[in-house]
């Protein structure tokens, strides 16, 4: 019984061991299969990753190539632009060098000519001195001989000679005086032209054009509705507070501010900018912002006046006159900004006064203040020159400055030499090309009328008004008009334009007569 139990127990143990071995073999096979599947999946994932990496690598390489090509094209473009600029700069330098060399050559020739003339004059002076010495000796000999022949002393002969030649000397003196007066007038005219030309050449200013409207740009058209407000109350409040007409039309992202007074227009523009930036737009806020902006503009006017006076080197100007100078920034005359015009006139006056030996500081002062009568606080019927003179007298300006202000449009008599300088410089500043705006229609009409005047003369084939109407170029038929007739035609045309037309500055009339012979080689 014990043997059987032991046998059964041994058999069970053996079976358990065999089962464990079989289970271990099965687990190993299963593990091996899982390992092979994992390896296969890993290889697949690695393969897919490689493919994806290759694709990404190709994409990055392609993008890099495109970026490189773009950068290369941009670099080449910049290089070409830089080369063009360098070529232009080199051309300008060459032109300048050519001009300088020509000027030096001309100066050398002139110096050589002057040296030759000086040597020639020195030789003539020495020759004249020798002749004078010999004439003195001969004169003494003649006087002695005449005294012996006439039994008359030299003093008595002198008295008789003086009496006999007195009337003749009077006649010659009158003729000489007249000739000297004419020469003086001619030289004075030439010198005045020279001074004016030098003054104009030494002052270079920009063109100035002012309009009666300003454009206020918006970020989007939605802001227009907020500016208008419910039933238009915001825009009415803004117009009432600023005195500016606000035009809201179909113009995208913009509204128009219209007013003849540029100060009020600037107040409206700055107020709108503050309101739109702040976002709070209602009547009470509008009035508050307009008041603040008005005070800001008043302070800016004073600052502009101070900067202008400092820039021009003018000292001791009354604060009210400084404020009037600053107010000129927001005023235009015939499209020309009044402050720029006054600064230009002041510089011209200072240069011209220095040329003729007068006080340049006093002339600058008069030139700057000559148009302050155009910016009154209240409307008045007094001419601006007289009003400006009254202001200058009220605030303690010198008599010469006051007279120059009042007389620059001939309302009063000129009593100082500064007055005509201010008048001339005012005309120069207003008449230079581009200073003042003209209506296009009248401008075209004037050019057409100028061409039609030329067509009224015999032998004219073509006429062109060029250089903004400052030159009339006329083509004539060589068979019908000779060289002498061409010169006469140019003179007659200039006289007719001068008498029949009104124009700024001057008009140059050029008559071209040419003969063309054309043959064709076959």
Give helix and strand order, one letter per element, not per position.
HHEHHEEHHHEEHHHHHHEEHE
Mean pLDDT: 79
Strand coverage percent: 5-15%
Number of helices: 14
Taken from the alpha-carbon principal axes, the silhouette is elongated
Give the strand order, joined by hyphens, for the main sheet: 1-3-2
Quickly give the structural class: mainly alpha
What fraction, in percent, of the residue positions are helical? over 70%
C-alpha end-to-end distance: 147 Å
Unreliably modeled segments: 205-210
Radius of gyration: 48 Å
Largest sheet: 3 strands, antiparallel
Number of strands: 8
Describe the structure in your own words.
With 522 residues, the chain is mainly alpha-helical. 70% of the residues lie in helices and 7% in strands. The chain contains 14 helices and eight strands. The chain has helices spanning 2-150, 154-201, 222-228, 233-242, 262-278, 283-312, 319-327, 338-356, 360-369, 384-394, 399-407, 418-431, 440-455, 483-500; strands at residues 213-217, 245-247, 254-258, 332-333, 336-337, 460-466, 471-476, 508-513. The chain has a three-stranded antiparallel sheet, covered by helices on one side. It has a three-stranded mixed sheet with strand order 6-7-8, with helices on one face. Strands 4-5 form a two-stranded antiparallel sheet. Helix 6 packs across helix 7 (319-327) and helix 8 packs across helix 12. The protein starts with a helix and ends in a 9-residue tail after the last strand. The relative contact order is 0.04.
């Amino acid at each position: 019984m014990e043997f059987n139990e032991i046998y059964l127990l041994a058999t069970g143990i053996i079976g358990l061991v065999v089962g464990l071995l079989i289970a271990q073999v099965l687990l190993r096979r299963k593990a091996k299969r899982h390992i092979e599947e994992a390896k296969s999946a890993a290889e697949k994932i690695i393969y897919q990753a490689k493919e994806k990496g290759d694709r990404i690598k190709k994409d990055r390489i392609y993008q890099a190539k495109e970026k490189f090509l773009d950068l290369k094209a941009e670099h080449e473009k910049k290089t070409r632009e830089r080369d063009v600029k360098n070529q232009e700069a080199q051309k300008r330098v060459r032109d300048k060098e050519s001009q300088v060399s020509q000027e030096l050559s001309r100066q050398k020739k002139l110096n050589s000519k002057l040296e030759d003339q000086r040597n020639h004059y020195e030789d003539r002076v020495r020759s004249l001195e020798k002749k004078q010495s010999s004439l003195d000796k001969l004169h003494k000999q003649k006087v002695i001989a005449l005294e012996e022949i006439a039994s008359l002393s030299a003093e008595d002969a002198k008295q008789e000679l003086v009496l006999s030649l007195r009337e003749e000397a009077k006649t010659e003196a009158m003729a000489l005086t007249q000739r000297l007066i004419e020469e003086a007038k001619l030289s004075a005219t030439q010198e005045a032209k020279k001074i004016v030309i030098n003054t104009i050449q030494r002052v270079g200013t920009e063109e100035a054009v002012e309009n009666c409207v300003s454009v206020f740009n918006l970020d989007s058209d939605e802001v227009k509705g907020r500016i208008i407000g419910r039933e238009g109350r915001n825009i009415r409040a803004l117009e009432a507070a600023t005195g500016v007409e606000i035009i809201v039309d179909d113009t995208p992202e913009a509204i128009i501010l219209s007013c003849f007074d540029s100060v009020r227009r600037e107040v409206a523009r700055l107020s709108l900018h503050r309101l739109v930036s702040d976002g709070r737009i209602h009547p009470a806020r509008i009035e508050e912002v307009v008041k603040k902006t008005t005070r800001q503009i008043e302070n800016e006017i004073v600052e502009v006046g101070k900067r202008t006076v400092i820039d021009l080197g003018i000292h001791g100007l009354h604060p009210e006159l400084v404020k009037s100078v600053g107010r000129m920034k927001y005023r235009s005359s015939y499209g020309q900004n009044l402050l720029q015009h006054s600064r230009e006139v002041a510089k011209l006056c200072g240069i011209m006064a220095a040329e003729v030996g007068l006080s340049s500081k006093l002339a600058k002062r008069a030139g700057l203040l000559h148009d302050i009568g155009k910016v009154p606080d209240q409307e008045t019927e007094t001419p601006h020159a007289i009003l400006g003179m009254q202001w200058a007298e009220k605030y303690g300006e010198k008599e010469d400055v006051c007279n120059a202000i009042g007389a620059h449009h001939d309302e009063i008599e000129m009593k100082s030499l500064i007055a005509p300088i201010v008048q001339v410089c005012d005309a120069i500043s207003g008449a230079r090309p581009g200073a003042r705006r003209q209506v296009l229609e009248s401008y075209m009409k004037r050019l057409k009328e100028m061409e039609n005047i030329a067509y009224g003369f015999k032998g004219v084939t073509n006429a062109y008004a060029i250089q903004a109407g400052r030159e009339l170029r006329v083509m004539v038929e060589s068979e019908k008009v000779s060289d002498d007739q061409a010169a006469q035609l140019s003179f007659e045309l200039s006289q007719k334009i001068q008498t029949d037309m009104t124009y700024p500055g001057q008009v140059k009339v050029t008559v071209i007569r040419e003969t063309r012979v054309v043959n064709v080689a076959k």
